[in-house]
Every structure is written in C-alpha cells, then in structure tokens.
Amino acid sequence: MKLNLLPTYVSKGSQAKTATVVSVLLALAGIIGAVLLIFVSKGDLKAARENAQANQEAAARAVAVSKQADKVMADAGMIIRNINLADAMIKHNDVYPDLYNDLKPYIPGFFRVMQMSATPSGPDTATVRLVGTIKTFQQYADVMIALYRIPQAISVARSGYVNVDPYVPNLTDVDQNGRPIKPGEGNIPDNKYDRLAYYQAQSAPTGYLGQGGYGSTDHSEARGAMPGYSVVTLDVTLPRKLQTPVPGDTLRMQTATAGTVGTTGGTPAPGGFGAPPGMPGAGPGMPAGPVGGNEER
User: Fold this and answer.
1) Pick from 229, 238, 241: which is nearest to 131 by CA?
2) Dihedral angle at the C-alpha atoms of 208, 210, 211, 212, nearest 10 degrees?
3) What is the pTM of this model?
C-alpha cells in the first residue's frame, strides 16, 4: 500500500501556477486578436469610404445627365407632338381611298357611278353615298341586292328613281283597248284620226337635246343621266373608322411629351378628309363620272 505523505497544498500550488500561465497566454491572444481586428476594420472602412466616394461621383453624373435629358425632352415636346400628329394624318390619308377600292368590286356594271363620297356616322361606322344612273326598275331593285353583298354591310337605302316604264292605263271613253303608255302621257284614242293627232302631238325633235349634258362641246363638264335613265342615290352604312385625328387638341397640349394621337373627334366633310375646327376645308369627293370598271354594259 502506497501512501501520499506530501502536504495537500503542494499539488494545489502547481495547479495555480499553470492556471496563471494559461490566463496570461489567453490575454495575450485576445490583445493580438483585438489589434488585428482594428487593423482589418480600418482597411475595410477605408475601402468602403473610397467606394462610396466613387459611387457618389457616378450618381452625381447620372443626376446631371437625367436633368439634361429632362430639359431636352421638355424642349422637344412640341416637336414630338407635331411629329406624332403628322404621322397620324399621313396614316389617315389612305383611309378613304382604301374604302373606295374595297367597295368598287361590289358595284354592278349597270349602275354608272357619277359621284362617291363617305362620311363617318360614328366612331366605328361610316356611310358611303353613291350617286349614279339606272335605266329600269329591275336594276333599281338589283342594285340594292348587289350592295348588300359588301362584307358587314349594315344597311342600304335608295332614292331618286323615276319610273318611265310603259303601263296599261284605266279605260276611258276614247280608249277602250288600254293601249300601254308611259307615265305622264294621256290615253291613246281608239279613233284612227284622233290617234294620228295624238302621235303628232307626241312627236319630238331629232338630234341632240342637250339632256344630261350630252351633245355639248365642253368636254370638261360632267355628263348626267342619258334620256330614259334616272339619277339615283344609294346610301350604304358599314363598320369603318373614318374620323380623323384632332389637330387642335394635340397642338394645345402643353405638359405631355410623346404619346399616341387620338383618333376620335373631327367630322370630315362628305367625300374627303375631315376639316376639324381651325383647319383648311375638306377636299372634294371623287370626281364626277364613271368609276373604272363600271361603264354601262
């Protein structure tokens, strides 16, 4: 059996010495770490300040460029609005010719067109007026059927036909046979002598009568209806946007920069481009005379 004969304070003293050495080492390590952290923090702070300075200069340049761009846009606002208006008006120039070209294939050949015009009847609808000549009442009925073939045609109205077809009148004392006559003529007598006098009274001079402008040596004048023909008017309503941009509203804008020019507003005069308030008058409709491909057959 081994006995520990050393006093108890001998072992505790060595432990206290070891603890003191360890504490000193830990304090030194902490001091060294703190010094290193201070140097590292100073380096990071310096780098951050330099980076902030560089970013601040770039931000100042960006703000200056933005202010300059705002000034340029403000000075060019009127120019941009005028360009947008001009582009919209140039684009609108094709609206009426395109409409006329779309309608021409549906106009029958027996209808000789003298005038064609279009007028917007709303934001999305338009009325096309056709003025021309027709000979018979059957053609007067057929032309409506032909125009209803126009895609998406809403309505077709007609007026102006004068009936000149012969008809059988009521019997009278002088006419017991009901001989056909034309509108405006009296009954043809049964008595041969009275009938001869009737035909003599109905006789007309031969040659050019000047009706409809035919026989005139002035070739610049538009020709009207030939003898036996009627001048009729046809109104076709269909979905088309014909309203022009509004120059007044666009040019009076003072705060807007660039934007889309509106397409509602001014009402064009019949047959041509619109004439909004303050702008020159609308152009005339299509020139009088037959439209190509619609000569009398």
Assistant:
1) 229
2) 120
3) 0.51
3-state SS class at 293:
coil
- Encode pLDDT of 188-216 as tens digits: 888 888 888 888 887 766 666 667 777 67
Ranges of beta strands (E only) in 161-243 are 230-238
Are 188 and 195 in contact by the 8 Å Cβ rule? The answer is: yes
Residues 129-167 have pLDDT tens digits of 999 999 988 999 999 999 999 988 999 999 998 887 788
C-alpha–C-alpha distance, residues 81 and 87, integer Å: 10
Contact 232, 159 (CB under 8 A): yes
The residue whose two tokens read 């294939």 is 105
Of 117-131, 205-219, 256-270, the least confident: 256-270
CB 209 within 8 A of CB 227: yes
Q: Which of 241, 224, 225, 207 is nearest to 119 (CA)?
A: 241
262 Cβ contact list (under 8 Å, min separation 6): 245, 246, 249, 250
Residue found under tokens 């021409």? 104
Q: Which residues pair with 128 in a beta bridge?
A: 118, 236
